[in-house]
Structure formats: structure tokens, C-alpha cells
């Protein structure tokens, strides 16, 4: 039997935390209440009323109360899933007991919130036996309140070396009859505490990139049918940096990320979706430069790559410190090596439809052509690239489409924005391809 | 007891796949037949008649027939090993049953192919228990046909997170009496399907680098006495990119790579062998530039590092944005830091012989000197470097020599090309050193 | 129960090996004797009389004798810990037996050395069962000589794929009643032999970076309460390269490194401690350039970033190939993105004190401001950055302070040098904060 995802969402782009109780406000639940009313691209796939680090320890009992109140009032209308984070620590039985008390309180069906809650987020987990302790508390609570066993999801924050090691055990442990770990949903990296736990130091105090942690989280999610989410990006002003981090994550199979503000939510909801228009990139001194489109031609107007026509079908190209004399064919070949294309949603749908038609007609592999007119220093060059598509290419290309479909099905509140972005026609075709 | 390699080859440079049956040709086995007749540097160490992804699903029964026919006819003369790939999927019992049927068909001794087949390649494996299922089918087939148990090798394609996790279990599982996993031979990464399984996305649709997967494959191979092979490099035109990938792989201990064409086979057979001549590299703006040799001197003729003599034993060096005034010793020291040397096969043999003689004479460590005359902007500078060699350095340097010896012993069809490349004398000395 | 460190040192910066017996000297123990008398920043946290690779095989029996003699004479006064390395190999029972003999000899209480020895270093370990064999020999020796079981530490050199895999088993195996693996202390990478074991090849013969090995070692140490140490850096002349390697290690949580000379010891003892003065970095073409301080302002005097005032509150900034016209606020914002600050020990202590006071006053998070005057092409710009500190930030920032405190408590011989470097006041405050 293949691993089946047991949850409604196959993809989660955004994990947005809100403090549950803020001191010194008239209404300590103000931030919860505001978050609960987010809609559209500013509303996350998973909203996390955060009764742990975002809330002062002395405010957490009030926070648990606020969670119940706000979700009972606004939960039914919230467009994403709701997964409160409650306290937990692998090294503190007192904290774990407090977790159990908050669980009992928040999940009490008489309070009217639990039917709107999809699951809970458990921070600071240790090795797999520690995960089982949290799972057991949730099982007891489900049983106590007559909820179906395993119906509440459990997501964990991976923020210790022990928890990272546990990621390799999930697939084996999730099948065992003495636990309900099949309730697992999100594996979320928590790099600030992980950095502390690993005792890492950087000169500026910035976080290390933790490539291996992110890989291992993504792999653990893949092997156990779960969803991998990256931790918070602290520098809220730095939108470009946030996008670079997301692109890096996506190449690891980690398609979701923590968001700290509605602005970050909107960026992160958008990031793993294909762009609305395709673009050509030119490699200039080891960096990829986006070419600007003018009347269907793609123009490089920097000074670091130069091109001149030196005679009949003769060109001189200077790039990366090299200067070369080339004929037209050599030039096109050379520029093909230096360029790459980022397909739009429409392009991906086109290619998939074309491959599906070819398969229908009995072909196993076809060449997809992509051509463009480049303009460098006023000189026009036609380039054209064939890429072979077979079943594997087709399936790998499908990930952004499956993601798009998952979003569109589960987030009606984003339909308008998505249709405005891509156009109705592309959205319709994207929903039936694959 | 140390891990012993159970197979003839200790190293495999090339894993070349051929479609087993192509529709619309007079002879559907044409590509198999052509591949079976490759010789010399164009012939792979391991040839893989590919009855999985390279062949259309509807053609695979005919493909199994073609495998038998072509190997029965040409297998005896093929200079490399022969390991057909047959269908398998961790999530599909139907595909696994089809695997068993093809195994029974291809391995039937009456058909005359099995005595020329070294083993089988199993794609799409899952966790270790899934590997055992394939192993068990091969055991049954061996028993049915009177072949020695464990005599058929089994190689796997690692193309899922589950299979990547299984790499850590091999050493422990291979010893167990209830399986014959000692038949394992190659661990081959399959990055296209792995990318799909990990649900990774890149803007251009290109494959992520998957550094951790390659490390874990190489480490799994090292711990279990197996051989690690990287997956296909799709862009067949891009010879430079293929070489960069191989250099990167080799630094991870992954010395073999998939090849899609005889041209790629020739490049990949050559890549892990030491070069025929040594060369000096100069670091220029963070990149390594190959210096051109002229009359035994190594000349930099780019413009990004400049040198002038400003007085008696006084020099001005400009490199990496810095300008510095140095005397002759300081200059030599500085240039030593900026240069590195790539030794030839002859250089490596020289150093090993020198260390062996020193060891014979009772010394545990000796300094190996390497000197050269550099020319920058017409100014000549002598540099000289001492590197300490001890037993560990000696043994680490031995890997390319052991590889060379393995190739030379197992591939008589490449003797002529190797002797032409390196000269008879160097080849003879390389075969006795170490 | 949380993992407790069972050893005196929570941090080890330096692991310094000395040959135990050198042929052809009047006193074969000369190098041991010299090393035993190092003090201050040149003396390592862990000194390793090396009866394995640093000593010729034929000299190792004499080496074991020298270890006993020199430690009996000088051990009581040595300021760091003493952990001799003795022979071992996962693949050789003969070598393991020799290990046992040397253990019995060196640990004999009548010889007067063992009371000064903190533990032993075991090289070339294999999988976890192999580690247990070494542990068992130490247990027998402890019992034989009336030493407390588990009182001798055991450190291992991770230099094989098998040993790297064992790092994931430590936490589980260390609790078992049939071993004394709680004696484990340091996990030390040995990249030269690891490279050989992984059969990796680089063109120049230099070592691969082995990022994943270092991560896995650091994670294994973190999960099991141990200390991770990187292997030797061969190029002794290359101080800058040694520092770059240490900075890279520190970002992985690997705070200690092997040292081959007292000069390297001094550099490595210094490297993980915060600097004595803070500094501003400017990102120039992808690299970080240290700005020079002049009268409290930070000046960039390279030519790759240019700035001019073009009008009233109008500026033109050229950086990274881009030219932009900005008003004063935009300019400050842009430069803030391009700069980062490396805090001094004093800065870190300041921030921690400030956060502690805020916490005392009931606040969970505060903004830490950092401002500076930058000068580019004579134009002055004020920049100012707020960073939010919460409990997690505070605790992650604490690592260098905890390290400093551990050093100061355990190494009285370095007090003078530390006070000279940082000033008495900063040292006193650093010892009470946190």
C-alpha cells in the first residue's frame, strides 16, 4: 500500500502564528481576533494561534482561554485550517503536563471551539518516544471528549538534533498499533532554537542556513506522507530575502514556510505558484539576470555582456571575461547555453496538454521546443531549445500544477485573486490537466 | 572481518542504458544490438538494457524477448558487465509481479542469455523491506534454474525519500540469514523521479543539485562495500556541464555516472582517471584559471591579475581588487597561495614510488616538493611547495591508481587507448605501484 | 531527564596531537615533553599524545612508555585535559589487541600517569558495535586497576562511512545497561582517512569539504550531549584558511578543531570567542568587506561601491552593477540591507543585560537598536537597525558567552591573556551574565 495523505490539504504554503494574549491591551485577544478575520491571499493555509514562544509565559493560561473564545466565534468562517500551538518540552515533565491541561481545556466540546480546530502544533519535541507522549495525550483527550481517535492532527516543530534524527524513524513508527502517529501533519523547522540546541555560532548572530536540516525534514515528510515547512524569516522588511529563501526551500521539496505578518503570508502564498508570465534569464558573471521583454523580444541592457556584428554572419561576443568570434550558429548555440527560461502557469499547462495528447497517440517521449529572440547591444539573435519530455519529466513538472489544484480546491476565498492574476481560461485549463 | 567486495569490479565508471524495444523500426532491438557492439572507451563498464523508463510500457514484453536474443548473440563478446533493468515499483504489486515474470523469462538457461548476464537493476525501490522482496524473487529464480544462490547481482535505483533512508540500513541488513542482499552491487541515484517524489520545484524546471542524496548514496555504498553511481545528465550537448557534475560527484566518493549516449560513455570512462599531463591553476577573482604551458613555464595571460617589477627585488601585484607591494619572497609566498597543481598519472605514480621507497628506508613521513616557474605580465616567478606525505596521504592518493588498475585489469579492450594516452611506461609503472 | 554532560568541559576549542616517540632524537619523547609544558593560549583544551598516525608503527611501543613517563612527570601541571590516542582498527583484531595491551600499560596506577589522564582517543572506529568493543576494553582496565567504572572518557575519530552512520545511534545506545558508552566525550572528524574510505577524488588531491559529515557529527554530538571537533588543517602556513574553516565549522555547531602546532592552537583557542571590538561589514559584489573605523565612523574606501550627492536629499548609489537615484531615507534603507554588524564580547554582554532587565520588568520581547555612521566617497549616511530579541534570540546569543565562561573557569592559565584582550570590566560582566 502506498502512503496515503490522511489530511484534507496535500500542500501547505503558509503557517502563520499569532500571539494568543498580549498584555496591556484592552482586549488581550486583539491579535487573535484580527488574524481570524484574514481572507484571500493574506489568509494562511494553516493559522496557528501561538500559545508558546509568541506569547509571554505568564499570559499563556489567558491565551488558552482566548484561543477557545476567538475560534468559537470566528473559526467557522476562517478559510484556512486552524492548528493552535501549545506548550511542550522534551526535557520538562512540568511543561508537558501543562500541555495536557491546555489540551483538555481547548478541546472541551462544550466550549464550542474544537469542532473548528484541525489539530495542534507541538514544539520542542525530542526523539520519537517523546513525540509518542504528545500523541498519547491527544488520544486520551479525543477519547475523553468522544472525538474519533486520530481525528486531531499533530504537527511538530523540529528544533533539536534529537528531533532531526527522529525524522528518519517516522515511516516505521507511524504504522505501529500502540500509537496514533498517523495523525502527524506538518513537520516544521524551528531554526532559532535549533541553532541554540546545536550550539552554533555565526559572527553576526544571524542564523546558519541549515541545509541538511531542511533536506532531512523534507525527506522525512516525503517518506511518511507529511508536509515540510520552513521556520520563520525574521527580517520582515526583507521581501527579496524571504523570496530567495522560499526558492531555495522549494528546490528541496519544502514548499511551505512560516509567516510572521499578513504581508509575509501574501508573499508566501504566492511564491510556490508558477508566475503569470514566462521570462528569460541570461547568465552574467555567474548571476542570472532577468531579460526585459519589449515587443516579444528579450533585451539585455546591462554592460557586462557585449555583442557586435563584425561581418557577414560574424559576431564578437564578450561574456565572463572571454571574448569570442563566432558565426551565427555558434552564437545561437553559445547564447542558448547562457540562457534559461522560467515557464508561466500557462506554459506548464500547454506542455502538459501537449504531452498528454502525444501519450494518447502512443508516443512515450516528445521534444518540447522553446524559442525566443534575444537582443544584446541592438543585435538580434534567434535561439531555440528542444527539451525531451517523457513520463518522468511530465510527472516532475506536475508538482506546481498539483499544488495549484490543491490551493484552488481548498481556498475558494482566493479564487478571485487567482483568476485576476492568471486569467479565467488558464485557471480552468490548469484545473483539468494532469 | 572487513567488508569484502563480492563482485569482479571494484569501480564502475559508466552505467549506460539502451531502450530494449523501439516501435516503428524494422528491428525493434536495433538500439540494443548497436550498444552490444560498442568497444573501447565508448563501451561502458556496466551496460543496462533498459526495459523500464527508456522503453514504452506497451513494448516491454517484446523488450524482454529482445534482451534475451541480443545478449545470447552478442553477450559473450561484450567487454563490460551486463545488468538489464526490469520493471518494479514499491507501490504496485502488479508491477512487482511483472518483474518476476520478466525475470523468469530472461533468466531461463535454455534461452542462452543468463550466463552472460551479471545481474539485474531494480528501479523505484522503497524502504529496505521492499528491497528484500526483489532480492527474494531473484533467489527463487536462481533456485528454479539451478544457479548459485546470490550469484546474480542486484543494483537499485534510489529515487524516493524512502529508498534514501534505506541506505543507512544496508550494512546491518546485508548480513541477515533470511535474505541474500549480499548480491547488492550498484546504488544508482535517479534524480528525475526523486525530484517528483520529494515534490521539489525549481523556477526553470531543472533538477535541484541534491547534494545530500548523493552524499548519502556514496556513504551507504562505502559502509556496505557497494558502488555509488549518479543519475542521468539530460543535456547531452553540454559536455562541460557533464564534466563539472562528475568532478563534483568524485569529491563525494561517487565515481560512476549514468550515460545516455556512447559519447557520454567515452567522457565518463575518462573522467575519473588522472590527466595525462599535470597543470597549474591560478585563482583569479574566485575562479581557478588553467595556466598555459610554454617551454616549461606556466603563463597567465588574462588581465585580471597584474604584476610589475617596481625596483630591485620589488614587485607590485594586483589581484582580487587588492594591490600590494612585495619583495621577491613575499611575492612567491603570495603566488603559492593563489596557485594549485593538478597532478598527472605520472606525477601520482612518482610520488607513490617515492613514498614507498622512504617507507622501505624506515621513514613515516616525507616532504614532496612541487615547483614551477610562473609568468605574469612577462615577469617570471619561481614558486615551490612542500607537502607532507604520511601513510594516510599515501593511501588517500591511491584511489585514482586503484581505479586505474581495476580498469586496466577488467577492460583489455581499452588497453590500446590508455597506452596511447599515457604512454606504455607510465601504464606499466601504474600497474605495479601501491 | 535532559541529557547531562558528564565531563568537566562543556566546550573544547582545541585538540592538539603530539608524536609520542620520534626516531633519531637523543630523547625520543622530546616533542611530548615540549607539548606538556605549553601554557596559556598556546596550550590546548585537550592535549593528545598521539600513539597512532603521528608516530611510526615501529615506535609505538616506545611511544606508550613515553606517554607514561612524560605524563607522570608533567601531567599534574598541564592546564588542559590529557587524552592519549592509542591504536585501533575496525577491520583488524590484531590492532585492537594491541590497543588493549597499551591501555593496560598506560593505565597501570603504579606507573603514576593514569591519575593525570582524562580519557583515551580511539581512531578508526566502525559501526556502533565496534565502539562498544573499545568501551569494553576500557571497562575491563578500569575494573582491573580499581578505577571507577566509566571514569575514563572515550573519544573517537570518525573516519569511515560506517562510523558516520553510527553517529545516529549514539543517543539510543548510550543508555543501555550492557555498555559504558556514557564515557563518550569528543566526536572528532578525520577527513584524510574518511576521504580514503569514501574513495573520493579531487583534481588537486586536496580534501573535499565534507559538509554533511561535519553536520552529522555536530548533530550526533548535540543529540547525545557530546562535543564535536573538526579534523586537522594540513596547510599550517595558511592562517586565513584555518580561520575560514573554523568560522564554517562554528555555523554547524562544531566549535572545536584539531591543531597540529602551538601556533594553530593559539588561533583555534581564540577563534570561537567573540572579538574584542565590533565591526561593520559592507556587501560588495557578493563579498563582505570589513569597513575601517575612523573617529567612530565606518569608511568604505574601495572603488566597487560609489555614492554621490546629486541634489538636495538626493543621492546616486552604484553597487553590484546597479545604479540608483535615492532620497536620504531610501539610501539609508538600501545601505542597511547591504551592511551587517559583528558584535564584540562587550556588545553581546550589553544586549544580554538589557534583555535580562526587560524580562525582569515583565517584557517578553524588546527591540535592540544598532546604529552607525557610514562614509562612502566622502558622503556620510546614518543607518540604524532594530532587531527584536525574545527568549529564543537571547538563548541563541548565549552560546559564545557560555563558551567564554567555560573557558574562563577551566583555564586559569589563560586569564591574563583574556583580560588583556577584553579588559577586566568586560570579563567580569561576561562571567555573571546569562
Automatic annotation (TrEMBL), chains A, B, C:
<feature type="domain" description="HpcH/HpaI aldolase/citrate lyase">
    <location>
        <begin position="115"/>
        <end position="253"/>
    </location>
</feature>
<dbReference type="GO" id="GO:0006107">
    <property type="term" value="P:oxaloacetate metabolic process"/>
</dbReference>
<protein>
    <submittedName>
        <fullName>Malate synthase, citrate lyase family</fullName>
    </submittedName>
</protein>
<dbReference type="InterPro" id="IPR059088">
    <property type="entry name" value="MSH_C"/>
</dbReference>
<dbReference type="Pfam" id="PF03328">
    <property type="entry name" value="HpcH_HpaI"/>
</dbReference>
<dbReference type="InterPro" id="IPR040442">
    <property type="entry name" value="Pyrv_kinase-like_dom_sf"/>
</dbReference>
<dbReference type="GO" id="GO:0016829">
    <property type="term" value="F:lyase activity"/>
</dbReference>
<dbReference type="GO" id="GO:0000287">
    <property type="term" value="F:magnesium ion binding"/>
</dbReference>
<dbReference type="InterPro" id="IPR053484">
    <property type="entry name" value="MS"/>
</dbReference>
<keyword id="KW-0479">Metal-binding</keyword>
<keyword id="KW-0460">Magnesium</keyword>
<dbReference type="InterPro" id="IPR005000">
    <property type="entry name" value="Aldolase/citrate-lyase_domain"/>
</dbReference>
<feature type="domain" description="Malate synthase H C-terminal">
    <location>
        <begin position="280"/>
        <end position="395"/>
    </location>
</feature>
<dbReference type="Pfam" id="PF25918">
    <property type="entry name" value="MSH_C"/>
</dbReference>
<keyword id="KW-0456">Lyase</keyword>
<dbReference type="InterPro" id="IPR015813">
    <property type="entry name" value="Pyrv/PenolPyrv_kinase-like_dom"/>
</dbReference>
Amino acid at each position: 500500500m502506498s502512503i496515503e495523505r490522511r489530511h484534507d490539504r496535500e500542500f501547505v504554503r503558509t503557517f502563520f502564528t499569532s500571539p494568543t494574549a498580549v498584555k496591556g491591551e484592552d482586549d488581550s485577544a486583539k491579535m487573535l481576533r484580527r488574524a481570524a478575520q484574514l481572507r484571500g491571499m493574506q489568509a494562511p493555509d494553516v493559522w496557528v494561534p501561538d500559545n508558546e514562544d509568541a506569547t509571554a509565559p505568564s499570559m499563556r493560561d489567558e491565551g488558552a482561554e482566548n484561543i477557545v473564545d476567538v475560534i468559537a466565534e470566528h473559526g467557522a468562517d476562517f478559510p484556512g485550517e486552524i492548528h493552535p500551538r501549545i506548550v511542550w518540552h522534551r526535557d520538562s515533565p512540568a511543561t508537558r503536563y501543562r500541555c495536557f491541561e491546555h489540551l483538555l481545556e481547548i478541546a472541551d466540546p462544550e466550549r464550542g471551539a474544537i469542532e473548528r480546530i484541525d489539530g495542534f502544533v507541538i514544539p520542542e519535541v525530542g526523539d520519537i518516544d517523546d513525540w509518542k507522549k504528545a500523541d498519547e495525550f491527544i488520544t486520551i483527550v479525543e477519547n475523553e471528549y468522544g472525538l474519533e481517535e486520530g481525528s486531531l492532527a499533530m504537527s511538530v516543530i523540529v528544533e533539536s538534533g534529537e528531533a532531526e534524527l527522529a525524522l528518519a524513524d517516522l515511516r516505521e513508527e507511524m504504522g505501529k498499533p500502540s500509537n496514533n502517529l498517523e495523525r502527524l501533519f506538518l513537520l516544521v523547522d524551528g531554526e532559532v532554537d535549533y541553532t541554540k540546541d546545536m550550539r552554533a555560532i555565526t559572527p553576526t548572530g544571524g542564523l546558519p542556513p541549515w541545509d541538511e536540516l531542511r533536506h532531512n525534514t523534507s525527506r522525512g515528510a516525503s517518506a511518511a506522507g507529511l508536509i515540510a515547512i520552513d521556520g520563520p524569516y525574521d527580517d520582515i522588511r526583507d521581501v527579496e530575502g524571504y523570496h530567495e529563501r522560499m526558492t531555495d526551500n522549494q528546490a528541496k521539496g519544502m514548499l511551505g514556510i512560516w509567516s510572521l505578518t499578513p504581508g509575509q503570508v501574501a508573499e508566501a502564498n504566492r511564491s510556490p505558484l508558477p508566475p503569470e508570465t514566462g521570462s528569460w534569464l541570461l547568465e552574467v558573471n555567474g548571476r542570472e539576470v532577468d531579460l526585459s521583454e519589449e515587443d516579444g523580444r528579450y533585451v539585455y541592457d546591462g554592460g557586462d555582456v557585449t555583442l557586435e556584428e563584425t561581418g557577414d554572419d560574424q559576431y564578437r561576443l564578450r561574456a565572463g571575461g572571454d571574448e569570442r568570434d563566432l558565426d551565427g550558429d555558434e552564437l545561437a548555440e553559445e547564447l542558448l547555453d547562457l540562457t534559461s527560461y522560467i515557464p508561466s502557469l500557462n506554459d506548464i499547462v500547454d506542455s502538459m496538454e501537449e504531452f498528454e495528447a502525444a501519450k494518447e497517440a502512443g508516443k512515450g517521449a516528445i521534444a518540447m521546443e522553446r524559442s525566443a529572440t534575444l537582443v544584446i547591444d541592438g543585435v538580434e539573435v534567434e535561439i531555440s531549445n528542444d527539451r525531451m519530455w517523457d513520463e518522468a519529466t511530465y510527472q516532475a513538472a506536475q508538482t506546481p500544477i498539483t499544488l495549484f489544484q490543491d490551493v484552488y480546491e481548498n481556498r475558494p476565498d482566493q479564487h478571485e485573486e487567482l483568476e485576476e492574476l492568471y486569467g479565467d481560461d488558464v485557471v480552468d485549463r490548469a484545473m483539468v490537466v494532469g
